[in-house]
Specification:
two-stranded antiparallel sheet; 2 domains; disordered C terminus; two-stranded antiparallel ribbon; 54% helix; mainly alpha
């Protein structure tokens, strides 16, 4: 019986002259899964699934750029080794979630604004999907053998064989013995696995909150920030990769604390329905999380859907509300 998680056999695959890195493939898989789920959630509110494609595209591009900028700004030596050109080598790792989320929201909002789609329902739609995307993307750290935690002998510790950078970036107390000029493999806390599990739990908790708790539109995203940062604090605390520290805590731990307090206070203070939003006699108040989109937005979404159908089938009229062949 294996008493640890084995090291990955490789960090990518070669297709002729093209090298595909699992880190990038898993990030892409997370984006696709999150976008697909967001489309289904938007459609369930009455929206047109195709509306989310351009919004997601802007969000993903802006998110990747800002995620890399955040990581490089806070971990310059670790990400680049002092070589500015390595700032573009995102397949080697180094994407900061804080920059990614902020950039994604900004990029998505800019595109949605041009489409006259309000931000609040979009934030509610994407909040749980972000957790799913992160759960998949975290396995990229496993294949890159990076961002692991303290040395461990637990049955689920991960075996790290690629320790070429230990001498330069890890404290001496965490290094494994050296034999013939090479560090021996060691087993460490699998922080990628812990965060993946917490991301999946966050996804489930957000769906539960959406169904059981009355929140105003847009504030499910605040609940996502609170839940994610709560778990991220503990995962970050046991990581041993170099990081800026202040008063004994890593920079990302302090970021988690600040965001957790701010988002929790915002949800509790502003997220609760105001009396005029209760909608006496209705089961789903119009301005609460999970309610159908308001009538003007529904009309705009129907118009976008009809326009998309006319492009796919020029000259063929499609009755409003029907589903074209091969759609969905």
């Amino acid at each position: 019986m294996v008493g640890y998680i084995p090291s990955p056999p490789a960090n990518g695959i070669s297709l002729g002259p093209v090298e595909l890195h699992f880190y990038g493939l898993l990030i892409a898989a997370g984006v696709v899964a999150a976008t697909w789920l967001a489309q289904r959630r938007w459609q369930r509110l009455g929206g047109f699934r195709g509306s989310l494609v351009p919004i997601a595209l802007w969000a993903v591009v802006a998110g990747l750029i800002c995620a890399r900028l955040y990581s490089v700004a806070t971990s310059w030596q670790q990400d680049t080794g002092g070589n500015p050109l390595r700032a573009f080598a995102i397949w080697e790792g180094g994407l900061g979630i804080w920059g990614g989320v902020a950039g994604g929201v900004l990029g998505g909002w800019l595109r949605a604004r041009r489409m006259k789609v309000p931000l609040a329902p979009l934030l509610d739609v994407v909040a749980p999907t972000l957790a799913i995307g992160q759960a998949l993307g975290r396995w990229g750290n496993y294949f890159n053998q990076e961002l692991f935690g303290l040395p461990s002998k637990l049955p689920w510790a991960v075996k790290i064989t690629d320790q070429s950078e230990l001498a330069n970036i890890f404290p001496a107390k965490y290094r494994t013995p050296m034999v013939d000029g090479r560090y021996l493999p060691g087993t460490f806390q699998p922080t990628f696995l812990y965060e993946c599990i917490w991301d999946l739990a966050t996804f489930g908790l957000l769906l539960l909150i959406e169904r059981k708790v009355k929140l105003r539109r847009g504030y499910l995203f605040g609940a996502y920030v609170s839940l994610y940062t709560f778990g991220r604090f503990f995962v970050e605390y046991i990581r041993i990769d170099p990081a800026h520290r202040y008063l004994g805590l890593r920079l990302n731990d302090w970021t988690s604390v600040v965001l957790f307090v701010a988002s929790s206070a915002l949800v509790l203070w502003k997220g609760r329905p105001r009396p005029r939003l209760e909608g006496a006699g209705t089961d789903a108040p119009a301005d609460l999380v999970g309610a159908p989109l308001p009538a003007p937005l529904l009309a705009a979404e129907r118009a976008r859907e009809e326009a998309a159908r006319s492009i796919r089938s020029p000259g063929q009229a499609t009755p409003s509300g029907s589903t074209s062949a091969g759609g969905g």
